[in-house]
Write a structure and sequence with these properties.
Elements: H1 9-16, E1 22-24, E2 27-29, E3 36-41, E4 46-52, H2 56-71, H3 79-95, H4 97-108, H5 112-133, E5 141-142, E6 148-156, E7 159-163, H6 169-182, E8 186-190, H7 197-209, E9 216-218, H8 223-232, E10 238-242, H9 245-254, E11 261-265, E12 271-274, H10 280-292, E13 304-308, H11 309-324, H12 344-360, E14 363-366, E15 385-388, H13 395-398, E16 405-411, H14 414-422, E17 426-427, E18 429-433, H15 437-446, E19 451-454, E20 469-470, E21 473-474, H16 482-485, E22 487-495
C-alpha cells in the first residue's frame, strides 16, 4: 500500500502539521485545554494527523464570537453578496477537488472514485444551489382588515450549532453550512471526531472566499463534550444534527430546556423491494449500489432487500456472486470498490452484528467476516456480505448495522411487501423495482419513508428534499425545504 506516494503535495502538507487547529473568530487556534486527539487512516490503522480537541470552553468562545458577528457586520451583508460568497466557495471547492477527494478518502476510507465523483462535486453544487436562494427569501402580504397593512418577513434564526457525521464529512458540512449561510445565519460546525480533516480544510477555503470572522466557526471534538456543550448552550438558537437515532433522541431531550429549533436526520433500515416483473439487471445493480456504496455506511442504504418469493433464491445467489467479485482495498487505489470501515469501533459493531446474524440463523452467501488477508489485517476491512435465511423480525433485519451487509428477505405479494417494508422503527428511504407503473405508484404512496426511489436507488440532488419519517428524524434538508430549518417568519401589522 504505497498510498502516500500518490498524494497531492497539498494533502501531504496538510496532514503533516503538528496539530490541526480549530477555527474561531476567523483565526486558527489551539483548544483552550491544549488537548489534542488522533484521527486514523482506516486502511492502515495508523495515525493520520493530530487535531485540537474542543470542549465546552471552546464552544462558548465560538458561540460568543458567532453572536457578535450575527448582530454586527454579518447582519449588514446584502443578500446578493451572500450569493456571491457561496458561489465563490463552490468554485474554490472545485479548484481544490483532487486535494479534498484525497483528504476525504484518507480520513474516511471510502473509495477515491466516490470522493472524486460524488462527495466533492455534490458539496460544491450544494453551495452553488443555495447561493441562488440567498436573494429569493421573500415574505408575503396578507389580506387583513383594510385598516392595517400586514406582511411577513423571513428572517435568519441566528446562531446555528451543526453536528455532522463521519460517513460523508465534506458533503454533510455543505448540507449544513450552505443553507444556513444563504439565510443569513452564523454557524458553529462540530465535525465527527473520526473525520475532521475536510471540514477543517473547508474552513480554510471559507476564509479564502471571504467569509467574515465569526460567521463560521469549526470546533472539532467529541460528542459528549464539544457536541453536548453546543446542544446545551443557552445562546445557540438552532441545532442541526445528522447521526444515530440514539444520539438524536438525546439531543431532542436536552434541547427541551432551551426550546431550540432542532432538525434531526437520523438512522434507517431502508426496504429495497424487487418485484418479479422488474428489470433484473437494473435491480441487481441498484441493490448492490444501494447497500455497498461507501461500505454500507449510508443512513439510507437499502439493507433490507425484499425480493418476490419466486425470484428470491436466484436473486440472492447472483447478488452474492457479484458482491464476492467486488474489489476490496485501500480507498486511494482507483480500482477499489469496497474500502475499509471508518474505525475500530465501527469494525467491532459490524462484526458483532455478523455474529448475531449467525446465532439468529442467517446464512452468509458471501462474506460474513473481517478481511484479514495479507496487507489488510491492520485496516478496518469487512468483506461485502449477503445474508439469506433472514426473517424481518431478526436483529440483523431490524437494527442499523451501518456496514457492507444486506439481508435478503422473501415476500409473497404487493401487500406483504408493503407490510414488511413498513415494519420498522425507521422511515428514511425505500426502493421499488417494477415495470408496472400503477404498482410503482401504489407502493411509493404506501411506504412510510421520506424518499422513495422507483427503478433506481440512492440518488440525491441539492434540489430535492431529504429526511425521514418515524425514528429517522424530522425536518427536511436540501431543496427549498431546508430554508424553513434556518429561518423564522415574522408577521408585521401596520395601521394605515
Amino acid at each position: 500500500m504505497q498510498a502516500a506516494e500518490r498524494l497531492e503535495p497539498a494533502v501531504q502538507k496538510f496532514v503533516a502539521a503538528p496539530v490541526r487547529t480549530m477555527l474561531i473568530d476567523g483565526r486558527w487556534v489551539e483548544a483552550a485545554s491544549g488537548r489534542t486527539f488522533e484521527t486514523v487512516n482506516p486502511a492502515t490503522g495508523e495515525v493520520l494527523a493530530r487535531v485540537a480537541e474542543g470542549d465546552a470552553e471552546d464552544i462558548d468562545r465560538a458561540v460568543k464570537t458567532a453572536r457578535k458577528a450575527f448582530e454586527g457586520p454579518w447582519s449588514k451583508v446584502a443578500p446578493n453578496e451572500r450569493e456571491r460568497l457561496l458561489i465563490r466557495i463552490a468554485e474554490l471547492i472545485e479548484a481544490h477537488a483532487e486535494e479534498l477527494a484525497q483528504l476525504e478518502t484518507l480520513d474516511n476510507g471510502k473509495a477515491i472514485n466516490e470522493s472524486r465523483h460524488v462527495d466533492v462535486p455534490a458539496a460544491a453544487e450544494t453551495f452553488r444551489y443555495y447561493g441562488g436562494w440567498a436573494n429569493k427569501l421573500t415574505g408575503e402580504t396578507n389580506p387583513s382588515d383594510p385598516s392595517f397593512f400586514t406582511f411577513t418577513l423571513r428572517e435568519p434564526v441566528g446562531v446555528c450549532g451543526q453536528i455532522i457525521p463521519w460517513n460523508f464529512p465534506l458533503l454533510m458540512a455543505a448540507w449544513k453550512l450552505a443553507p444556513a449561510l444563504a439565510c443569513g445565519n452564523v454557524c458553529i460546525l462540530k465535525p465527527a471526531e473520526q473525520t475532521p480533516l475536510t471540514a477543517l480544510r473547508l474552513g480554510e477555503l471559507l476564509l479564502e472566499a471571504g467569509v467574515p470572522a465569526g460567521v463560521v466557526n469549526i470546533v472539532p471534538g467529541y460528542g459528549p463534550t464539544a457536541g453536548m456543550a453546543l446542544v446545551k448552550h443557552p445562546h445557540v438558537d438552532k441545532i442541526a444534527f445528522t447521526g444515530s437515532t440514539e444520539v438524536g433522541k438525546l439531543i431532542h431531550r436536552e434541547t427541551a430546556a432551551t426550546l431550540k429549533k432542532v432538525s434531526l436526520e437520523l438512522g434507517g433500515k431502508s426496504p429495497n423491494i424487487v418485484f418479479a416483473d422488474a428489470d433484473m439487471e437494473a435491480a441487481m445493480q441498484g441493490a448492490l449500489t444501494g447497500v455497498f456504496f461507501n461500505q454500507g455506511q449510508v443512513c439510507c442504504a437499502g439493507t433490507r432487500l425484499f425480493v418476490e418469493a419466486k425470484l428470491h433464491d436466484e436473486f440472492a445467489q447472483q447478488m452474492a456472486k457479484l458482491a464476492a467479485g467486488m474489489k476490496q482495498g485501500p480507498g486511494l487505489d482507483p480500482e477499489t470498490q469496497i474500502g475499509p470501515l471508518v474505525s475500530q469501533e465501527q469494525l467491532e459493531r459490524v462484526t458483532g452484528y455478523l455474529d448475531i446474524g449467525k446465532k439468529e440463523g442467517a446464512k452468509s452467501l458471501t462474506g460474513g467476516e473481517r478481511n484479514t488477508q495479507s496487507g489488510y489485517e491492520k485496516g478496518y476491512f469487512v468483506k461485502p456480505t449477503v445474508l439469506a435465511n433472514v426473517k424481518n423480525d431478526m436483529r440483523v433485519a431490524r437494527e442499523e448495522i451501518f456496514g457492507p451487509v444486506v439481508a435478503v428477505i422473501p415476500f409473497k405479494d404487493e401487500h406483504d411487501a408493503v407490510l414488511q417494508g413498513n415494519d420498522t422503527l425507521y422511515g428514511l428511504a425505500a426502493g421499488v423495482w417494477t415495470r408496472d407503473v400503477s404498482r410503482a405508484h401504489r407502493v411509493a404512496r404506501a411506504i412510510k419513508a421520506g424518499t422513495v426511489w422507483v427503478n433506481c436507488y440512492g440518488l440525491i440532488d441539492a434540489t430535492a428534499p431529504f429526511g425521514g419519517y418515524k425514528e429517522s428524524g424530522y425536518g427536511r434538508e436540501l431543496g427549498r425545504y431546508a430554508l424553513d430549518l434556518y429561518t423564522q417568519v415574522k408577521s408585521v401589522w401596520m395601521r394605515v
